[in-house]
Amino acid sequence: MELGAAFDDVRQEVRALLEAAADAGAGAAGVEAVRDEYGYSWLVSRRRPRELPELVGDLHMVNSALEGGGFGPQLLCSVVGFRGGEDGERRLGLVYLYKRGTFYPFAPLPGEADRRDNALELRVRAILAEDLRIEPDLGRWFPLWGAPGL
Fold first, then answer.
1. First and final CA of the chain: distance in angstroms?
2. Whole-angstrom Cα distance, residue 66 to residue 64?
3. Out of 8, 76, 86, 107, which residue is the most buried by the measure of CB atoms under 10 Å away?
4. How many of the other CB atoms lie within 10 Å of CB of 80?
């Protein structure tokens, strides 16, 4: 089976899993496949802020399905995006590096092309360090410019 067909099969399985979770009362808005400007494929699940535990379940389910479909070596990361501030323009991504089992924050600056808020990233690291396995190598805190959901 060619890679594109295999990915389509896994994507359909993931959609079915997430739709079943939504039907069970989890409330997912659905999942969509998106390709970013760099050619990376993303599966995007949108949730309301109070549904963060369900979103974490979605991410685990998606990663497990992709790994089970033979795509484990191609998995790079999962991202949970947050928006805030008075104007809703502040963005923060909590990035999970699949192969390393670690997290790091990514905070693109609003209205700035390819610039990030390093101070916010370091504050978030300090806040989450007791609860999550934070990536210790700052050189691996890759920017995710153009990632859907951010």
1. 33
2. 5
3. 107
4. 19
- Quick: pLDDT tens for 26-78: 455 567 778 888 888 887 877 888 888 888 887 888 888 888 888 888 888 99
Nearest to 135 by CA among 146, 144, 124, 150: 124
Nearest to 58 by CA among 10, 9, 15: 15
pTM: 0.80
Count of Cβ atoms closer than 10 Å to residue 103 Cβ: 21
- Cβ–Cβ < 8 Å for 144, 109: no
